[in-house]
Write a structure and sequence with these properties.
By secondary structure, the chain is α/β, with parallel strands linked by helices. Helix content is about 50%, strand content about 15%. It binds 3-methylbut-3-enyl trihydrogen diphosphate and magnesium ion. 3-methylbut-3-enyl trihydrogen diphosphate binds next to helix 1. One of its GO terms (molecular function) is ditrans,polycis-polyprenyl diphosphate synthase [(2E,6E)-farnesyl diphosphate specific] activity.
């Protein structure tokens, strides 16, 4: 399950509040949504918290969002009961070199504290973009081939997947974008090839348990088709050189 959490500022402006408040609400909703997903048996959740493109926002807003990210990563450790109860390993994915050092340190702390958890997974995509991710993965493959640690025949889709930020995670089954926008915005493009895309008008801070339930029902209804398509894709991967 993946979420493009969109609509925080519009939510704040509806309440006549500053955009920071919208992002605060957005973070609280992330915790709720994570808990609902875990309770409903969804064990891998990926969220788009900040894209590489978001660095183009006004510097003051970027600084505010970075400060918030740092604070919220610290706070996640205080939510340890929820994280521990469901055995959630938290990973912060993206080009972490673009983040301020203090945010990077907070990300490292949360990843280290939860790395032994095996049952659930929360991928927080921060300074993330699929193009960056794929370019980096291809760069790794190239270096490994050059150094002789990987033979050129072993360069295939699986090898690329293993070097993606989400290595070890299942492909995305449902990708939800809130706030009426129907764009993928360079989010998990490689991982979402067989995902069901769901676009809802609800703004992220107002996303409710019922919205999640509706998403799960829509996915269940489409599941026979999605499974057939997924299996066909898997067969193609196994029988072609680009597997
Ligand atoms: C999503 O909400 C959060 C981030 C991208 C950081 P927005 O900040 O995009 O809020 P809207 O879409 O302008 O309402
Ligand atoms: Mg937006």
């Amino acid at each position: 399950m993946a979420f493009i959490m969109d609509g925080n500022r519009r939510f704040a402006s509806r309440l006549n509040k500053a955009s920071t408040a919208g992002h605060e609400f957005g973070y609280l909703k992330l915790l709720d949504a994570l808990e609902w997903c875990l309770e409903m048996g969804v064990s891998c959740v990926s969220v788009f918290a900040f894209s590489i493109d978001n660095f183009k926002r006004p510097p003051q807003e970027v600084a505010m969002l970075m400060q918030l990210a740092e604070e919220k990563l610290e706070e996640l450790l205080q939510e340890y009961k929820l994280i521990e109860k469901h055995g959630v390993c938290i990973r912060v994915l993206g080009d972490l070199s673009l983040l301020p050092l203090s945010v990077r340190a907070a990300a490292d702390r949360v990843m280290e504290a939860t790395q032994h958890h095996k049952r659930g997974r929360l991928n927080i995509c921060l300074a993330y973009g699929s193009w960056q991710e794929m370019s980096q993965a291809i760069g790794h493959l190239q270096k490994e081939v050059q150094s002789g640690s990987l033979s050129p025949e072993d360069v295939d889709g699986r090898a690329l997947d293993a070097r993606s930020h989400t290595a070890g995670c299942p492909p995305v089954d449902i990708l939800i974008r809130t706030s009426g926008e129907s764009r993928l915005s360079d989010f998990l493009l490689w991982q979402s090839g067989t995902a069901q895309l769901q676009f809802t008008d609800v703004l992220w801070p107002e996303f409710s348990f019922w919205d999640l339930l509706k998403a799960l029902v829509l996915w269940q209804l489409a599941r026979p088709d999605l499974e057939r398509i997924g299996q066909a894709a898997e067969r193609r991967r196994q029988t072609h050189a680009y597997s």
